[in-house]
Amino acid sequence: MAAALPRKPEIMSPAGYWPQLRTAIEAGADSVYFGLKHFTARAKVGFAVDELPEVVRTLHSRGVRGYLTFNTLVFEHELDEAAKTIAAVVNSGVDALIVQDVGILRLARQIAPHMELHASTQMSITDAEGVRFAQSLGVDRVTLARELSLEEIRKIYDQTGCELEMFVHGALCVAYSGQCFSSEAWGGRSANRGQCAQACRLPYDLMVDGEHEPLADARYLLSPGDLYTLHQVPEIIRAGVAALKIEGRYKDSDYVAMTTQAYRKAVDEAWAGRVPQIRREDELRLEQVYSRGLGAHFVTGTNHQAVVNGRAPRHRGVLIGRVTEVGPDAVLIAASEAHSVLPLKPGDGVVFDAADWRSPGEPEEGGRIYEIAARRDRSLELRFGNGAVHFDRIRAGDLVWRTHDPSLAAIVRPFIEAAVPVRRQPVSVQVTAKESAPLVSEWWLANRPELSVTVTSGAPLGAARDRVLSQETLHDQFGRLGNTAYELAEITLETEGAPFAPASLLNQVRREAVEKLQTLQTAQPAREVRTPEQPHYAPAQLNSGTPQLHLLVRTPEQLAAALAIHPASITLDYLDLYGLRPSIEQVKASGVTARVASPRVLKPGEARIVNFLESLGCRIVVRSSGILNVLQNKEHPELIGDFSLNAANSVAAHEYLERGLSRITPTHDLNAAQIADLARLAGPDKLEVVAYQHLPVFHTEHCVFCRFMSTGTSYKDCGRPCEKHTVALRDQSGRSHPVMADVGCRNTVFGAEAQEASSHLDSWLAAGIRHFRLEFVHETAAQVRQVAKAFEGALAGHMNSAQLNRELKAVAPGGTTQGSLLVRIDYLELPVLAVADSPRDPAANTSPDTAALTVWPKDRGTRTRPSRSNGKPAPSALAECSAAPTRHAADWHARSTRRPSWHGSVSLRARTARSTPEYTARSGRDTGHSPLP
Questions:
Q1: Are 697 and 192 in contact (CB under 8 A)?
Q2: Calpha distance 509→503 (Å, rounded)
Q3: What is the per-residue pLDDT across 393-420, written as a single tens digit (0 to 9) for each?
Q4: 325 with 302: CB under 8 angstroms?
Q5: Which residues contact 173 (CB under 8 A, 6 or more apart)?
Q6: pLDDT per residue as tens digits for the range 59-85
Q7: Residue 74 and residue 499: Cα distance in Å, rounded?
Q8: In the chain, N or C: fewer CB atoms in 10 Å?
């Protein structure tokens, strides 16, 4: 097995802050990843920049590498600060940067040409071409999307030889990382900016052909279980994976200790050629410390029935039984297999899961067991403290989960409260001993032989009378490494004559060697840090040409309506490839420019899709970096980069444009003012903006059609319900969000309201933008015509923005919203996401992971936080964010209103406020985002 990879794969553990970082070290992590307070995809945790040198010293002194997550999209006004931060990070000694933004990759390579760069999973890389694209940007390692199977990962490694990293444990997002805009659409909080509000963890109703389809206990139909691949570790190593990454920067030290230790043991055994010994009790403890239900999911292939259970969105722990009888002061349960392995006991926290008969909005009953008794029929009688549980809210048949087991504390304590190092680094020693000459010893780390030191004794060795220096003596003296972070692995001795070394001399040599090893390990690497190149973009000339309308349609009926409009272009985004060619020919015959939209995701084995798109002989709207990498290296039609490339700043935009795109569509993380500003910097003729659409809030490998409308596991046996039915997800506010499948059977959930830019057309036109796209999802042919005609009138000057707004509101199915285009007065500031205001009660089945979803009460006790209070819906943090856009200073950080130095000194805030008064939203009322249910 050792020949499969150049080195043993890393165990890569998460650290939200110091406790988790220290725990990861002791539990056996090879590397730890962590973030700052800003520029990170986990905005609620992280270190300050000035803490990084100490972080790195701590890690390196223990032989552990440190990777900093710089994995968010960076806005234009933050580029100066980003450059300074990157320089500080490089100087701190961090081993690598994990990056999402293409512009930041370019900037980082300029600042630190020898810095190791890793592509974040938020770059949505799913094939060899995506890896090659990242490598062309200077990336050394790629974190692959979590939706890939081991067979697909093996193919990518075989084709690229690139260092690959994969998630092996922890929470799964239902959407592809980097391709989720639900938080942005519904709450003005960008998941690509570390502000995910976990809308996927909310309940939804399934609407099929306009009718409610009952789902029984599976109301959380977008909430996946957690990833668990301990059994697949040998295959993971054989697939060429260089780093096994554990998710969980929001998790506590218990979780870090348990998961790191488990995967450390499995990798060590697999690398040694042994089958990992995975005990059932260890698996249950992994479930106990945190899980929503564990499974390998996409790692072992596609099974849509397994990814989402749907009963609950939060930590469940271990299924310990099912209720058989409820008494006035006790509950009888039939115990599960888990009870025979790790028995239920007094002090354990449990929750009663009534998802099959109670609304998701209702609170769950739960508490700590006070007394437990086994009956003759092997059932268990559970009793609780007075008033801890409402027995009238528990029924026979309810599942019983142990959400907390206090005995875990004794298992994790050695790693969390280590008085002396638990994890030690093996050291090898070579000794040369000669009479009348100093003793010379070379010490090196067994796992990193390039780190070696030489220690020469101050005094020469004498001649032995009866005790000649032996290997056993050296092993005894040099092995006394006590409280250091080292352990003696092996020692070799070369002697000449009969040398004698007193114990005091050997002890001094040992102490000096340890000191030198520590100094060597914690020495700052010599790195070149450069001032980034000042972009010399010629000031964009305002475009005085006629505005052009581009329509994107998804059905033949919509196409017929679009042809009647005769726009500048029509883009086809069909579910079925077979219908594309005749439709493209139809568009061409009409004299309208024909375009086709590529998939957002392309996996190994799907390259034929690109070949087919090329064969259509029309322009291509490119939605993935892998597809762009294929097309840029050959003769190709005109290419238009879509929003999914996530161009958030001018550096990223120019990077894409230099790779063969004629125009780029800005990421949906930008508001209308930022889009106008990007047009001024990148060139207004280089932008194509979306002025009407249902925002694609989730893009998922998980197929709702297959999971809930068939008994199949994949497209091979699902019966293709996506071709026969229309499906929408209805949220708690009654809004129905359409769901569509693409050519790869991936689902996109679209926002119910149409996001439209009527309030911003004047500003965009003033910025020189002339390419406007309208995208349709479930609109009828009549609605397509009405929307397109309304925009035609507005762009021609026959209709003002208010009239356009009224027209669209009357026509659009589900109403309209500004959505992500809304410009708040404080959009240049990043909100601080508050974590729960009290430590997590381990008996409750909730955790800080859902802090963005719910607002915790001051006193939570041991019962799960209710979704309702006094009969009224409890506000979610996301809804609160939506309703209160004018936060005060205490709620925000990373204030930066300066424009980057290379773009002049005019304040963007001041400029947009002067030119477009409506952007200031002085009333404090956010009309652009509907509150999340």
A1: no
A2: 10
A3: 999 999 999 999 999 999 999 999 998 9
A4: no
A5: 146, 180, 200, 224
A6: 999 999 999 999 999 999 999 999 999
A7: 65
A8: N
